[in-house]
Amino acid sequence: MKVAISSLSSRDDSLIAKIKKILDDEDIDSEIIKRSDKMTTSNVDMVITAGGDRAILDYSHYVKEFSVPVLGIYESDSTGFLGQIDVSDLKKSIGRIKKGDYEIDNVCRLSVNVDGKEIEPVLNDISLFPRESATLMEYILKINGNDLWHDNSDGVIISTPIGSTAYCMSAGGPMVLQKSPVFVIVPVNSMDNTRRPLIVPNTDRLEIEDILCRYLCEVILDGGKRVAVRKNIVCEKHEFPAKFVKLIKDSPMDIIAKKVKLAEDLLDMPPSAKLILKTLEYEGELSQKDLSKRTMLPERTIRLSLSHLIQRGYVRKKTSLRDARQKTYELNLKL
Q1: Contacts of residue 112, Cβ cutoff 8 Å, sequence gap at least 6
Q2: Catalytic residue among 53, 125, 154, 222
Q3: Cα separation, 64 vs 320, whole angstroms
Q4: Each residue's pLDDT tens digit in the chain (335 positions)?
Q5: Which residue segment(s) compose the domain that 13 sits in?
Q6: Do 97 and 139 have their domain in common?
Q7: Considering the entire predicted model, what is its pTM?
Q8: Residues 116 and 234 in one domain
Q9: Is position 210 annotated as part of the catalytic site?
C-alpha cells in the first residue's frame, strides 16, 4: 500500500512529520506531495490531508479529478466537520486502512465558471458579494437558461448539500442531507420578501448574470479564495465528485444534530465573534494579525471577541511554532 500526504500549507509541517513517522513505523510506503509538485496521485492508494477542514477544502480545490480517496487527519480536539481522525488515533487505525476496512463517500462538488473562465472546483459553496460591505448588488438568476428572478440584495450563496450546514445555514438556508442530489440557492438580505432559499436539482445549470454594483463584486470559494466577477457566474455539478475515506460511521442525522447544537450555542454570540469563529473554521490556525486582515475587524474588536470565545471554550490560544513570541488561535470545538 502507498499513501501520499498532502502538504499545501507550511503551518501543518509538524503534523505532517508526525503522520509520516507513524506511517514509516507501520511499514507503509508514503510520500509528501506539495503544491509546487504536480500532485500526481495516480500511483497511490490513498491521500492524507494534514490539518482541519481548510486542508481538505484546499486539496479539493487543487485536484480536478478525484481518482484517489482522501482521509482528513487533524490534531487536537478541533475537528471541524470534514476531518475523520485525530493523529493520536492514526496508529490504531492503520490495520483497518491496510485491509481497506473503510467506506468511501462520494461527495458532490460545484464546477464554477467566472466570466468565461473555469476556476477551482468547490466543495461547500460559492458566495457572491460586493467587495465593499453594506452595499447592495443587483443580479439576475437563471436556471437552465431561463430567468428565475431579478434581485437586489447584499449577495447570494450557491451551496452543495455538504455545504448546506456551513455559511449557507448561517444565512438562513435549509439543512440538506449529504446524499441529496440538489443544490441550494440563498439570497442574502434581499430587498424582496419573495426571494427565499431555493432548492434545485443538481443536474441544473445555474447562472448569475447582469451583475450591477457601485463596487467590484467577488465570488468567494468555500470561504477562502476570492475571484473578481465582472459579468457572470455559471455553476454546474462537477464531473468528478470528491472521495473521502470514512472510518467513523456517523449517520447524516448525527452530523446535522452536531450542527444544530452548535447553532443553538451561538445564538447569543456577538456578530464579530461569529465571524471570527467562521474564519477559524475555514482558515485554520491564525494570529490576531491574520484575523484582522481576513475579517477587516478593528484590532480591539478582535481582542475582545477572542477573549469571549476563549472563555466560552470555542477557541484556544497557542504559542506559534514559528515565533515563540507570537500567539495563534484555533477552534476548540468538541463535536
Answers
A1: 118, 119, 120, 121, 122, 126, 219, 221, 233, 234, 235
A2: 53
A3: 33
A4: 888 888 766 667 788 889 999 999 988 988 888 764 555 566 888 999 887 777 888 888 888 888 889 998 887 644 456 777 888 888 888 988 888 888 898 999 999 999 999 999 999 999 999 988 778 999 999 999 999 999 999 999 999 999 888 788 878 888 898 889 999 999 998 999 889 999 999 999 999 999 999 999 999 998 888 999 999 999 999 999 999 998 876 655 666 666 666 666 666 778 888 888 878 876 778 889 889 888 888 888 998 989 888 887 788 888 776 666 788 888 775 43
A5: 2-107
A6: no
A7: 0.76
A8: yes
A9: no
